[in-house]
Specification:
The chain is α/β, with parallel strands linked by helices. It is 25% helix and 28% strand. The radius of gyration is 17 Å and the shape is globular. Bound molecules: 1-O-pyrophosphono-5-O-phosphono-alpha-D-ribofuranose.
């Protein structure tokens, strides 16, 4: 079977340049903070972005992680979200930055902002690497965004399809997702070469 077609949507070089710029911008934003800002990465997709972003920041930061799940049938997101792993850090009086890999419908970020605001942060902002504006169901505040992307399925740089492909250093578009859904591992060899077979 022919593997599904992919296109490079954002190259590794463009990702690194944009993340460096965001890191500089965020360092400036928080440079006057009394305490280190708390960066909250939402597992799992944002981990690569977080790792590069904090190394592009020139100020002291605190990192924490949160895992959430949304429920629905047939892969549809109903907007019902639940916290699966909560933070270790208290947020009271802190400057808080939510770090996301992608904002799509906006339901996850809307939920997160509401729940984290309840914890009394001094400020609450969000940064996403990718913003799929065309898919938005609810308007949501988003202070920083790396790239606005079209409504196409993407993998790489943290983003997965059925848990694979997160470790690509670029973002690839997969225009025909149904072909990949039929054989989720069909891009492994084209992208990583033979070796595990
Ligand atoms: C992605 C992303 C956001 C959410 C955005 O997570 O990291 O949390 O989807 O979608 P929304 O705007 O439609 O709510 P995903 O569920 O793919 O989990 P993962 O990061 O563990 O792959």
């Amino acid at each position: 079977m022919t593997p599904p077609e992919t296109q490079v949507l954002i190259s590794s070089e463009d990702l690194q340049a944009r993340v460096a710029a965001l890191g500089a911008q965020l360092s400036e934003t928080y440079s006057a903070s009394k305490e280190a800002p708390v960066l909250i990465a939402i597992l799992k997709g944002s981990t690569l972005f977080l790792a590069d972003l904090i190394r592009a920041m020139s100020i002291d930061v605190v990192v924490d992680f949160m895992s959430i799940s949304s429920y629905g049938s047939d892969g549809e997101r109903p907007g019902v979200v639940r916290i699966m792993k909560d933070l270790d850090q208290p947020l009271e009086g802190r400057d808080v930055l939510i770090v996301e890999d992608i904002v799509d419908t906006g339901l996850t970020l809307t939920y997160l902002r509401k729940r984290l605001n309840e914890r009394g942060p001094r400020s609450l902002r969000a940064v996403t690497l990718l913003d799929k504006v065309a898919r938005r169901i609810v308007p949501v505040d988003l202070e920083y965004s790396g790239f606005e992307i079209p409504d196409v399925f993407v993998i790489g740089y943290g983003l997965d399809f059925q848990a694979r492909y997160r470790n690509l250093s670029k973002i690839l578009a997969v225009p025909d997702l149904s072909a990949l859904a039929m054989e989720p591992a069909s891009l492994v060899e084209p992208l990583f070469g033979p070796g595990l077979g």
